Protein backbone atom coordinates (compact mmCIF):
# COMPACT_ATOMS: atom_id res chain seq x y z
CA UNK A 1 0.00 0.00 0.00
CA UNK A 2 1.67 3.21 -1.15
CA UNK A 3 1.51 6.58 0.56
CA UNK A 4 3.54 8.46 -2.03
CA UNK A 5 6.46 8.66 0.41
CA UNK A 6 9.60 6.58 -0.38
CA UNK A 7 10.11 3.76 2.12
CA UNK A 8 13.56 5.07 3.07
CA UNK A 9 12.08 8.46 3.94
CA UNK A 10 9.24 6.86 5.92
CA UNK A 11 11.84 4.93 7.92
CA UNK A 12 13.66 8.18 8.68
CA UNK A 13 10.42 9.91 9.65
CA UNK A 14 9.42 7.01 11.91
CA UNK A 15 12.86 7.11 13.56
CA UNK A 16 12.47 10.84 14.20
CA UNK A 17 9.01 10.30 15.70
CA UNK A 18 10.35 7.58 18.00
CA UNK A 19 13.14 9.91 19.15
CA UNK A 20 10.63 12.66 19.92
CA UNK A 21 8.37 10.25 21.78
CA UNK A 22 11.31 8.98 23.80
CA UNK A 23 12.20 12.58 24.71
CA UNK A 24 8.61 13.17 25.81
CA UNK A 25 9.10 10.55 28.52
CA UNK A 26 12.71 11.39 29.43
CA UNK A 27 12.88 12.09 33.16
CA UNK A 28 15.69 14.57 32.53
CA UNK A 29 13.54 16.76 30.29
CA UNK A 30 11.45 19.63 31.60
CA UNK A 31 7.66 19.50 31.35
CA UNK A 32 7.77 22.10 28.56
CA UNK A 33 10.36 20.08 26.63
CA UNK A 34 8.37 16.88 27.06
CA UNK A 35 5.13 18.47 25.88
CA UNK A 36 6.86 20.15 22.91
CA UNK A 37 8.41 16.83 21.84
CA UNK A 38 5.04 15.05 22.12
CA UNK A 39 3.30 17.81 20.17
CA UNK A 40 5.92 17.71 17.42
CA UNK A 41 5.62 13.92 17.19
CA UNK A 42 1.85 14.25 16.88
CA UNK A 43 2.21 16.81 14.09
CA UNK A 44 4.57 14.54 12.16
CA UNK A 45 2.30 11.54 12.57
CA UNK A 46 -0.64 13.55 11.24
CA UNK A 47 1.34 15.14 8.37
CA UNK A 48 2.72 11.85 7.08
CA UNK A 49 -0.28 9.68 8.06
CA UNK A 50 1.88 7.50 10.28
CA UNK A 51 -0.20 5.75 12.91
CA UNK A 52 0.82 3.63 15.88
CA UNK A 53 0.60 0.46 13.80
CA UNK A 54 2.91 2.02 11.22
CA UNK A 55 5.52 2.78 13.86
CA UNK A 56 5.58 -0.91 14.72
CA UNK A 57 5.60 -1.99 11.07
CA UNK A 58 8.42 0.42 10.20
CA UNK A 59 10.74 -0.78 12.94
CA UNK A 60 13.76 -2.28 11.10
CA UNK A 61 14.13 -5.99 11.81
CA UNK A 62 11.12 -6.07 14.10
CA UNK A 63 9.03 -9.18 14.59
CA UNK A 64 5.30 -9.34 15.03
CA UNK A 65 4.39 -8.62 18.62
CA UNK A 66 2.17 -10.89 20.64
CA UNK A 67 -0.93 -9.57 22.30
CA UNK A 68 -1.05 -9.18 26.05
CA UNK A 69 -1.98 -7.12 29.09
CA UNK A 70 -0.22 -4.23 30.75
CA UNK A 71 -1.22 -2.87 34.11
CA UNK A 72 -0.35 0.01 36.39
CA UNK A 73 1.33 -0.37 39.74
CA UNK A 74 -0.72 2.56 41.05
CA UNK A 75 -4.42 1.90 41.58
CA UNK A 76 -6.72 4.38 39.81
CA UNK A 77 -10.01 2.60 40.39
CA UNK A 78 -11.38 5.52 42.43
CA UNK A 79 -9.94 8.34 40.32
CA UNK A 80 -12.06 10.20 37.77
CA UNK A 81 -9.59 9.16 35.05
CA UNK A 82 -11.46 5.85 35.02
CA UNK A 83 -14.22 7.59 33.08
CA UNK A 84 -11.73 8.12 30.22
CA UNK A 85 -10.73 4.47 29.82
CA UNK A 86 -13.03 3.62 26.92
CA UNK A 87 -11.88 6.69 24.97
CA UNK A 88 -8.23 5.93 25.74
CA UNK A 89 -8.77 2.35 24.62
CA UNK A 90 -10.25 3.35 21.29
CA UNK A 91 -7.61 6.03 20.78
CA UNK A 92 -4.79 3.52 21.29
CA UNK A 93 -6.43 0.44 19.73
CA UNK A 94 -6.43 -1.32 23.10
CA UNK A 95 -9.10 -2.86 25.32
CA UNK A 96 -9.29 -1.37 28.83
CA UNK A 97 -10.13 -3.64 31.71
CA UNK A 98 -9.50 -4.09 35.43
CA UNK A 99 -6.85 -6.25 37.05
CA UNK A 100 -7.68 -7.70 40.47
CA UNK A 101 -4.99 -7.67 43.16
CA UNK A 102 -5.86 -10.23 45.86
CA UNK A 103 -4.23 -11.07 49.16
CA UNK A 104 -3.03 -14.56 50.10
CA UNK A 105 -6.57 -15.47 51.18
CA UNK A 106 -8.01 -14.49 47.83
CA UNK A 107 -9.67 -11.29 49.07
CA UNK A 108 -9.68 -8.26 46.79
CA UNK A 109 -7.09 -5.70 47.86
CA UNK A 110 -7.41 -3.24 44.99
CA UNK A 111 -8.27 -2.89 41.33
CA UNK A 112 -5.75 -1.69 38.78
CA UNK A 113 -6.23 -0.35 35.30
CA UNK A 114 -5.07 -2.77 32.63
CA UNK A 115 -5.03 -2.59 28.84
CA UNK A 116 -5.00 -5.45 26.33
CA UNK A 117 -3.10 -4.88 23.09
CA UNK A 118 0.40 -4.77 21.62
CA UNK A 119 3.41 -3.65 23.63
CA UNK A 120 3.55 -0.19 22.05
CA UNK A 121 -0.19 0.43 22.17
CA UNK A 122 -0.59 -0.63 25.80
CA UNK A 123 2.35 1.54 26.85
CA UNK A 124 0.81 4.51 25.06
CA UNK A 125 -2.50 3.86 26.83
CA UNK A 126 -0.86 3.75 30.24
CA UNK A 127 1.10 6.92 29.53
CA UNK A 128 -2.12 8.66 28.56
CA UNK A 129 -3.64 7.58 31.88
CA UNK A 130 -0.65 9.11 33.68
CA UNK A 131 -0.78 12.37 31.77
CA UNK A 132 -4.58 12.81 31.96
CA UNK A 133 -4.68 11.91 35.65
CA UNK A 134 -1.93 14.41 36.53
CA UNK A 135 -3.51 17.16 34.41
CA UNK A 136 -6.96 16.66 35.93
CA UNK A 137 -5.48 16.76 39.44
CA UNK A 138 -3.55 19.96 38.73
CA UNK A 139 -6.42 21.78 37.02
CA UNK A 140 -8.94 20.66 39.64
CA UNK A 141 -6.81 21.88 42.54
CA UNK A 142 -6.38 25.27 40.88
CA UNK A 143 -10.11 25.57 40.20
CA UNK A 144 -11.18 24.58 43.71
CA UNK A 145 -8.84 27.20 45.14
CA UNK A 146 -10.21 29.85 42.78
CA UNK A 147 -13.87 29.32 43.84
CA UNK A 148 -13.26 28.86 47.54
CA UNK A 149 -16.18 30.38 49.44
CA UNK A 150 -18.39 30.35 46.34
CA UNK A 151 -18.88 26.61 45.75
CA UNK A 152 -18.54 23.87 48.33
CA UNK A 153 -15.08 22.35 48.00
CA UNK A 154 -16.18 18.74 47.47
CA UNK A 155 -18.88 19.75 45.01
CA UNK A 156 -16.45 21.91 43.05
CA UNK A 157 -13.82 19.19 42.96
CA UNK A 158 -16.14 16.37 41.85
CA UNK A 159 -18.08 18.42 39.29
CA UNK A 160 -15.00 20.04 37.78
CA UNK A 161 -13.04 16.79 37.49
CA UNK A 162 -16.02 14.91 36.02
CA UNK A 163 -16.62 17.67 33.50
CA UNK A 164 -12.97 17.60 32.53
CA UNK A 165 -12.91 13.82 32.16
CA UNK A 166 -16.03 13.93 30.00
CA UNK A 167 -14.56 16.52 27.62
CA UNK A 168 -11.18 14.77 27.53
CA UNK A 169 -12.99 11.62 26.37
CA UNK A 170 -14.85 13.58 23.70
CA UNK A 171 -11.63 15.17 22.46
CA UNK A 172 -9.89 11.81 22.22
CA UNK A 173 -12.80 10.51 20.14
CA UNK A 174 -12.65 13.57 17.89
CA UNK A 175 -8.91 13.19 17.35
CA UNK A 176 -9.29 9.47 16.62
CA UNK A 177 -12.07 10.14 14.11
CA UNK A 178 -9.91 12.76 12.38
CA UNK A 179 -6.91 10.42 12.34
CA UNK A 180 -8.94 7.56 10.86
CA UNK A 181 -10.32 9.90 8.19
CA UNK A 182 -6.83 11.22 7.41
CA UNK A 183 -5.32 7.75 7.16
CA UNK A 184 -8.15 6.60 4.92
CA UNK A 185 -7.76 9.62 2.66
CA UNK A 186 -3.97 9.40 2.48
CA UNK A 187 -3.53 5.64 2.26
CA UNK A 188 -6.76 5.02 0.38
CA UNK A 189 -7.82 2.43 2.93
CA UNK A 190 -7.96 1.78 6.66
CA UNK A 191 -7.53 -1.97 6.13
CA UNK A 192 -4.36 -2.00 8.26
CA UNK A 193 -6.24 -0.67 11.27
CA UNK A 194 -9.37 -2.74 10.64
CA UNK A 195 -7.36 -5.97 10.38
CA UNK A 196 -5.43 -5.07 13.50
CA UNK A 197 -8.61 -4.53 15.52
CA UNK A 198 -10.12 -7.81 14.28
CA UNK A 199 -6.95 -9.67 15.25
CA UNK A 200 -6.88 -7.95 18.62
CA UNK A 201 -10.47 -8.92 19.36
CA UNK A 202 -9.80 -12.55 18.51
CA UNK A 203 -6.73 -12.53 20.75
CA UNK A 204 -8.77 -10.94 23.54
CA UNK A 205 -11.40 -13.65 23.30
CA UNK A 206 -8.62 -16.22 23.48
CA UNK A 207 -7.46 -14.58 26.70
CA UNK A 208 -10.97 -14.83 28.15
CA UNK A 209 -11.91 -11.18 27.56
CA UNK A 210 -15.00 -9.68 26.00
CA UNK A 211 -13.74 -7.04 23.54
CA UNK A 212 -17.13 -5.32 23.47
CA UNK A 213 -17.63 -2.71 26.18
CA UNK A 214 -21.04 -1.64 27.41
CA UNK A 215 -19.99 1.08 29.85
CA UNK A 216 -21.73 4.44 29.51
CA UNK A 217 -20.17 7.89 29.48
CA UNK A 218 -20.08 9.69 32.79
CA UNK A 219 -22.24 12.80 32.99
CA UNK A 220 -21.86 15.69 35.39
CA UNK A 221 -24.78 15.73 37.83
CA UNK A 222 -23.61 18.26 40.42
CA UNK A 223 -22.67 21.91 39.97
CA UNK A 224 -23.09 22.97 36.28
CA UNK A 225 -20.72 25.91 36.68
CA UNK A 226 -17.89 23.71 37.92
CA UNK A 227 -18.65 21.06 35.32
CA UNK A 228 -18.48 23.59 32.49
CA UNK A 229 -15.21 24.93 33.89
CA UNK A 230 -13.83 21.40 33.82
CA UNK A 231 -14.85 20.99 30.19
CA UNK A 232 -13.13 24.28 29.34
CA UNK A 233 -9.95 23.11 31.08
CA UNK A 234 -10.02 19.91 29.02
CA UNK A 235 -9.62 22.00 25.87
CA UNK A 236 -6.13 22.93 27.06
CA UNK A 237 -4.92 19.35 27.43
CA UNK A 238 -2.10 18.40 25.04
CA UNK A 239 -2.27 14.69 24.26
CA UNK A 240 0.69 12.41 23.63
CA UNK A 241 -0.65 10.44 20.67
CA UNK A 242 2.00 7.73 20.91
CA UNK A 243 4.78 6.95 23.36
CA UNK A 244 7.16 4.09 22.62
CA UNK A 245 9.50 4.53 25.58
CA UNK A 246 8.43 2.11 28.30
CA UNK A 247 7.64 3.86 31.61
CA UNK A 248 8.85 2.29 34.86
CA UNK A 249 5.35 1.76 36.27
CA UNK A 250 4.11 -0.50 33.46
CA UNK A 251 4.31 -4.27 33.78
CA UNK A 252 3.50 -6.99 31.27
CA UNK A 253 1.25 -9.75 32.55
CA UNK A 254 1.62 -12.17 29.64
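-> sequence recovered:
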Amino acid sequence: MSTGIPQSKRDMIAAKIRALLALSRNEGATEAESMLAAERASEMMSKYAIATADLEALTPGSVKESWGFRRRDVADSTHVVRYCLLAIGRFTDTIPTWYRVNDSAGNLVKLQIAFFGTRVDTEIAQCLVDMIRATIDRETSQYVASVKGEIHGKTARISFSQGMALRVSERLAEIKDAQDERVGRTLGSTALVVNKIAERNEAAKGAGMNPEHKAKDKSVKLDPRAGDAGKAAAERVQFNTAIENKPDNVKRLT
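The two ends are 32 Å apart (CA to CA).
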